[in-house]
């Protein structure tokens, strides 16, 4: 996948101890996290990317231009479980965005950036434009690994709010999270790739309607 308006990106590889079962609604409370893991390694993206490209399976060209689907699939991704999102609630909008942008499903999607198209409704400005027309790039290894594992999918298995980093202030706001994304096989139980752990900060702007929209994402 890809990150728009991102200052720096650091992915934290964690052991495969999480599961795809933790898919709570955005209306549920998110546990606070006061400190971030310290082991870091660079990757080309702040979202679910950076897996090793499989040596077998369908060919994938990182330079290929992404073409959004003509219409969104009627079936929701298996890894995306959301309740009704209150767009006037900054926390709910931030969590809905993070869960959506990291949830693709090889049964309904043809490219990992299809998740970004679904997440664009929570964004505005340059970030929205980038999600709808992403630049060619890598990040396809996890998608291919999931395809090879019985039409698998990705899901946010853990989402921790960073204490003191969620601030609605007037028309501007921000939310900080530690996000763990898991790539599961088609049975929803076995891992198709290692988990990816990322620390990210989202900037948001309150619209005249009162709704919050994400305008920038920075991962480190």
TrEMBL record:
Compositionally biased spans, kind Low complexity: 24-45
Record flagged with keyword Signal: yes
Signal peptide stretch: 1-24
Record's keyword terms, sorted: Signal
Region feature (Disordered): 17-79
Name of this chain's protein: Lipoprotein
Organism: Luteipulveratus halotolerans
């Amino acid at each position: 996948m890809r990150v728009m308006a991102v200052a720096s990106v650091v992915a934290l590889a964690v052991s495969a101890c999480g599961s795809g079962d933790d898919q709570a609604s955005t209306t549920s409370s998110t546990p606070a996290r006061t400190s971030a893991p310290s082991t870091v390694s660079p990757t080309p993206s702040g979202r679910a990317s950076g897996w090793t490209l499989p040596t077998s399976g369908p060919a994938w060209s990182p330079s290929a231009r992404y073409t959004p689907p003509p219409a969104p699939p009627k079936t929701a991704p298996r890894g995306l479980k959301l309740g009704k999102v209150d767009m006037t609630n900054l926390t709910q909008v931030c969590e809905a965005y993070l869960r959506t942008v990291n949830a693709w499903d090889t049964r309904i999607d043809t490219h990992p950036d299809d998740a970004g198209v679904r997440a664009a409704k929570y964004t505005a400005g340059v970030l929205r434009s980038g999600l709808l027309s992403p630049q060619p790039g890598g990040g396809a290894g996890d998608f291919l690994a999931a395809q090879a594992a019985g039409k698998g999918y990705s899901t946010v298995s853990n989402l921790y709010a960073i204490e003191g980093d969620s601030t609605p202030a007037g028309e501007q706001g921000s939310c900080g999270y530690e996000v763990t994304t898991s790539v599961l096989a088609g049975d929803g139980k076995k891992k198709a790739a290692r988990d990816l752990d990322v620390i990210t900060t989202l900037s948001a702007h309150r619209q005249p309607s009162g709704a919050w929209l994400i305008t920038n994402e920075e991962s480190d």
